[in-house]
TrEMBL record:
Official protein name in the record: beta-glucosidase
Protein EC: 3.2.1.21
InterPro entries the UniProt entry points to: Cellulose_deg_GH3, Fn3-like, GH, Glyco_hydro_3_AS, Glyco_hydro_3_C, Glyco_hydro_3_C_sf, Glyco_hydro_3_N, Glyco_hydro_3_N_sf
Domain Fibronectin type III-like as annotated: residue spans: 643-713
Organism per entry: Thyridium curvatum
Signal peptide: 1-17
The entry's keywords: Carbohydrate metabolism, Cellulose degradation, Glycoprotein, Glycosidase, Hydrolase, Polysaccharide degradation, Secreted, Signal
Amino acid sequence: MLIQKSLLLAAASLVAADGAAVRDWSEAVSKATAAVAKLSQQDKINIVSGVGWNKGPCVGNTAPVSSIGYPQLCIQDGPLGVRYGSSVTAFTPGIMAAATWDIDLMRQRGQYMGAEAKACGIHNLLGPVAGPLGKSAQGGRNWEGFGPDPYLTGIAMSETIEGMQSSGVQACAKHFIMNEQELNRDTMSSNVDDRTMHELYLWPFADAVKAKVASVMCSYNKVNGSWACENSHIQQGLLKEELAFPGFVMSDWNAIHTTTGSANNGMDMDMPGSDYNGRVVLWGPQLNNAVNSNQVSKARLDEMARRVLAAWYLVGQESGFPNINIKANVQGNHKENVRAVARDGIVLLKNENNILPLKKPKKIAVVGSAAVKNPKGINSCTDRGCNEGALGMGWGSGTADYPYFIAPYDALQTRAQADGTQISLSNTDSTGSVSGTVSGADAAIVVITSDSGEGYITVEGHAGDRNNLDPWHNGNQLVQAVAGANKNTIVVVHSVGPVILETILSTPGVQAVVWAGLPSQESGNALVDVLYGLVSPSGKLPYTIAEKPADYGTAPVRGNDMFTEGLYIDYRHFDKANIKPRYEFGFGLSYTNFTYADIKVTSNAKAGPATGDVAPGGRADLWETVATVTCTITNSGAVEGAEVPQLYITLPASAPAAPPKQLRGFTKIKLAAGASETATFNLRRRDLSYWDTAKQNWIVPSGSFEVNVGASSRDLRLKSTIEAA
Ligand SMILES: OC[C@H]1O[C@@H](O[C@H]2[C@H](O)[C@@H](O)[C@H](O[C@H]3[C@H](O)[C@@H](O)[C@H](O)O[C@@H]3CO)O[C@@H]2CO)[C@H](O)[C@@H](O)[C@@H]1O
C-alpha cells in the first residue's frame, strides 16, 4: 500500500507537537555506546534488570544510573493506553482501530497514547500487539491486536508505533512470538514451519522494526521447543540479524526460566525482576554472578545496556522528560479519537428495508444488560475482568480504567430527548418481559456481547480464550424474544472477535445487524452517530465471520500446537478450502454505494531474490515500491460515505503453493455523493514475495500476478495483472 497521503503524514509526524524528534538509530546507538563506556558493571546490571513487581511506580521499573542522568525507567501497560492511570483516556482496542482501515486514525491513536504516557512520565508503553496475530478466533487476547491478516496488522503496527514514538515514548511490540492462545500459554510449544513464520507471524514484527520500534517483548510460550525468551533462533537470528533490530528485547513478566539461557540467547532486559508469582529472581545479582564467572560475556552485557540506552536516546528521553505521575489528568481532547475510531470501525452487516439510518422514530425500545453501564461501576472489575453491563474492551493487562463511559442507552436517550422520541428500556437479558418493552416501538435495539481476555482471569467459565463463538448471556434467545414482539429489530453486537450469527440471521424481524466491536468509553456516542446517519458506516471486518466454528479450522489446543494449518488462517483458509463465510474478511455495508472503474498498473517488478543491504526491517529493497495500481472509486449513492477499496494478489504458478489471495493494499476514501477519487496502491517488493526456505530469502516469483481490487475479500470488482520476469 503506502498511500501517498500516508507518506506525507508520516514525514510530518516524525516530529510531535511538543517538538520531540525520533532520532536515527545510528545516532541513538552511538550516544548509547559512548554512555556505556562510562558505566560500571553494576550500572549495566541495573539498566537491564527489573527491580521487582510492585517495587516502583510502574508495572516494570529499573534502577537509575545518575552518572549518565539515566532515570528509574518506568515501563507500563499497555496497548490501549495507561493501565492503572487515574485520569487517562481508555483508547479503543487494537481490533477496533483495525476495523476502521484508516491509517490516519491509527496514527493519531498512537500519537495520543504516546502523549498521555509521556505526560505521566512513562518511558515505555507496552504496545502495540501483533502476537497473538489471531490464528484461532477463540484466542483470548486477539482483541488487543489488529486481526489475523499480517498485512493489515503490519500497517497498523507501523502507524501506531510511529505515532507513539513521535510523542517521545518508547513503544514495545509484543508478544514475540507465536503466543496465539491463553490455554497453557506458559507451558506449550508453538511449532511452526519457517515459511509460515515469515509470511504470517513475523511479517508484522518486520513492520514494527521498520517503523523503528524501541523494544520488543518476548512471550511466555516455547517456539519449536525452546522458550521464546531463551530462543536464539527467534531473538538473535530472526529479530536481531534478519530484521536488524537495534533496540532491546524485554521479557514478558517472569517469562524467563534461566539466567544464562535468556542472557546468551538474545534477551536484553528481565521484567519485572522479582519473586513475582512465586518465581526466583534470575537477573540482577544472578546476572552479575554469571558475568563474573564468564557464563555471560562482558561484551554481551555491554550490548544489552547499549540496546536499552539506544532506545532511550532514540525518542529523546534524556532531557526534559516529565517526572512519573500516573495519577495525572492527561486526557486532553483525545476522546475525539476514541469516538472517531469507535464510529468508523462499526461494520454494518445487514440492513433490510433501509431500517437504518433511523429517521426520527416516534418510539424506540432498547434491550439488554449490555445496553447500560455496569451497574456495579464502570471500573468495578479489576482489569475489566467481568462482562457486566456494556462491553467496551476485553480483560487483562491490556486494559485501562475508563474515565467515563457513554453506554448505548445513555446516548440513545440523549438523542431521543432531542428528537422528542419516546424511549423504553429493558436492562436485563431476561426474555420474559421484553415483549412489553418492545411491542409498538418503531425500532427495537437489542445489544448482545461476547468477551475474552488474558488467562489469569476467568470470566463466566472462560479462562481467557473463549469456550465457543456464541453470544454470551443467551444473546440468541434474547434476540429471538425481541424480534418475536417487534418486526423492526436492530441487533448491536459488541464483541472481541467473530460470533456465530446464524440463529440471529434466521430470526424473522431482525432487520439490521450492527457490528459495533469494542468501542471503549465512547460506545454510545459512536453507535448513535451511525444508527442515526450522522455518518455512513465505513468499517470493514478485520476477520471472517463463519457460519460455524469448525469452518475456521483452528482452535486453541491443549498440548503443543503444531500449526498444521500453516499459511491458511482466516480468509486464506476459507478461500483454499472453498468454504462460504457468513461475512467475509473486509466486508462492510454503507448507506451509500460505490462503483469501481478504470484499473491501471505500472510495474518494474523483477523476479528473483531480495538483494539489498540489511537494515532495520530486513533487506532494504523489500520496502521499495515495485508496482503501482490505481483505480477510480465513485460514490454513486445519495449520501456522503467512505469506502475501503482493498487490493489482493495471487502469486503466479511458478511460486510454491500459496493462499489463493492475499491482502496487499488498502486505502480509505471519503466521498461526497456523486464524487470520484483515484485510489492508489503502491506495492513493495515484499508484497510480491514469498519466503524461500532453502534460499532463506524473499523471492519475487516469475510470471503473472493476478491483482484484484474490491470492496471485500469476496467482492472483487476489478482485475489486472503484474508481470515479473
Ligand atoms: O503487565 C506487564 C505484562 O504482564 C503480563 O501479564 C501479567 C499481568 O500484568 C499481571 O497483572 C498478572 O498478575 C496476576 C497474576 O498472574 C495472578 O497469578 C494473580 O492471581 O493475579 C495477578 C493480577 O492481580 O499476571 C500477568 C502474567 O501472568 C502480560 O502478558 C503482558 O502483556 C504485560 O505487558
